[in-house]
Design a protein that fits this description.
Blueprint (H helix, E strand, L loop, with lengths): L1 H23 L7 H11 L6 E6 L14 E9 L6 E10 L2 E7 L4 E5 L11 H20 L1
């Protein structure tokens, strides 16, 4: 009976590992434009063309607050002639942890997938780990 439960447990863990691995290996967008197009396709928004202008990288001149930086301006053209919706991409980390705002399309703080790949930890947990590692390094230098 114990062997049966161990076999079932290992099977469930193996299936979960395969599913997580499959999600981890999905191709990530290479540019902000590709990430915006992916989000618009998910929300089934009709558009003629999309323009994304990166405003701030590498300069840090357009900081909105200490934590947020506006990374790009987004224009979603509904037809080629005249109608466009304006928005912005705000990031909490350089080229990661980004959100799209296009008020005319009722898209508010929609998360974009990271451009640089999959994080091993969620952003708040990654900050805590980084703080703890800095503390450990300081302690090691004192010795």
């Amino acid at each position: 009976m114990l062997r049966r439960w161990l076999a079932v447990g290992l099977g469930v863990v193996g299936a979960a590992a395969v599913l997580v691995g499959g999600v981890q290996w999905t191709p990530r967008p290479a540019t902000y434009r590709a990430a915006v197009l992916e989000l618009l396709a998910q929300r089934e928004v009709a558009y003629a063309t999309v323009q994304v202008r990166e405003d701030c990288w590498p300069a840090q001149q357009c900081s909105v607050t200490a934590a947020t930086t506006t990374a790009a301006t987004v224009l979603v053209w509904h037809d080629h002639a005249r109608a466009a919706s304006y928005g912005q991409i705000s990031c909490y980390d350089r080229r990661g942890d980004c959100y799209l705002d296009v008020a005319a399309l009722r898209i508010v703080r929609a998360p974009l997938r990271d451009l640089r790949g999959v994080r091993l930890l969620p952003q708040p947990l990654a900050r805590v780990v980084e703080e703890r590692m800095t503390w450990v390094r300081v302690l090691n230098r004192r010795r």
